[in-house]
Design goal:
Elements (H helix, E strand, L loop, with lengths): L35 H21 L7 H12 L7 H9 L18 H10 L1 H5 L7 H13 L7 H15 L6 H12 L3 H6 L3 H5 L9
Helix pairs in contact: 1-3, 2-3, 6-7, 7-8
The structure holds zinc ion (2 copies).
One zinc ion (ZN) binds next to helix 1.
C-alpha cells in the first residue's frame, strides 16, 4: 500500500542565515551534538514532529506509552511517518546488542547497521515534494554526527562545517562539496570555519605549492 510520506522538519521556521552559537561561538549547529545550545537548535525540528505525533496519539512524553509508540513507528513501513519521527523513534530506543542509541553504535554492530540502513528507505522512495535535497543532507549529517566517534574524522569535519548552512536550507552542490572536501584534506579547517557561506567555503583560493 502506498504510504503518505508526510514531510519532516517543516513545522518550525528555519533561520534566515547562519549565526554564531551563543554557547560555543561557532556557527550554530557546528557544535552538534556536544554543545547543548547547538543540539537544542538542531533537535527542535525533530522534536516538533515527534510532539505532534505524540499528541495525535494521546501519548505523553517520557511515558512507557511513548516507548511503545517508538517501537510501533519503527515497525511501520517507510513513509508512514515523517522521517524525523523515524529518527526520533530510533533515539528513544536502545540497541538490544550494543546498548547505544539504535543505529548509532559501532559500525560492526549488525543491529545498529541494519537499523541505520533501513531508515534511508524513506529518502530513496519518497516522492520529490516530500523531501528536499537540503532536508536529505540535514538528515544524513545529523545521523552521522550522532555516531561521530565511529566515523572518519575527515567526514565528521565536513559534516560539522556544513550543518549551519543545511539548517538555513542551503545544500551544497556536488562541485561545492568536492571543493570543501579538498580544502579540508589540505588542512584548511580554520579558513573554512571562518567562511560565512557555502559559496565562500568552496571559493577559498588555491594555495601555492610549497616546495
Ligand atoms: Zn553551540
Ligand atoms: Zn548497536
Amino acid at each position: 500500500m502506498a504510504q503518505p510520506y508526510p514531510p519532516g522538519a517543516r513545522l518550525l521556521a528555519r533561520p534566515d542565515q547562519a549565526a554564531p552559537c551563543p554557547t560555543c561561538g561557532t556557527l550554530l549547529g557546528r557544535g552538534y551534538p556536544d554543545c547543548a545550545a547547538c543540539a537544542e537548535t538542531v533537535d527542535a525540528y525533530w522534536l516538533a514532529d515527534w510532539a505532534a505525533l505524540l499528541s495525535g496519539n494521546g501519548v505523553a512524553e517520557g511515558t512507557a506509552e511513548e516507548r511503545d509508540l517508538a517501537a510501533m513507528v519503527l515497525a511501520d513501513d517507510p513513509g508512514a511517518h515523517p522521517w524525523t519521527c523515524d529518527d526520533w523513534a530510533m533515539r528513544r530506543t536502545s540497541c538490544p546488542y550494543c546498548r547505544a542509541e539504535l543505529g548509532s553504535g559501532a559500525l560492526d554492530c549488525l543491529s545498529c547497521a541494519s537499523a541505520d540502513q533501513a531508515r534511508w528507505a524513506w529518502d530513496h522512495t519518497a516522492p520529490p515534494q516530500a523531501m528536499r535535497p537540503d532536508e536529505h543532507a540535514l538528515r544524513l549529517t545529523v545521523a552521522g554526527l550522532r555516531s561521530a566517534e565511529h566515523r572518519r574524522p575527515g567526514v565528521v569535519g565536513f559534516w560539522r562545517l556544513l550543518l549551519p548552512f543545511l539548517l538555513v536550507g542551503r545544500a551544497p552542490t556536488r562541485e561545492e562539496s568536492r571543493r570543501v572536501r579538498l580544502h579540508l584534506m589540505a588542512g584548511r579547517e580554520d579558513e573554512l570555519s571562518e567562511a560565512a557561506s557555502v559559496e565562500e567555503m568552496a571559493a577559498l583560493p588555491a594555495l601555492p605549492w610549497r616546495g
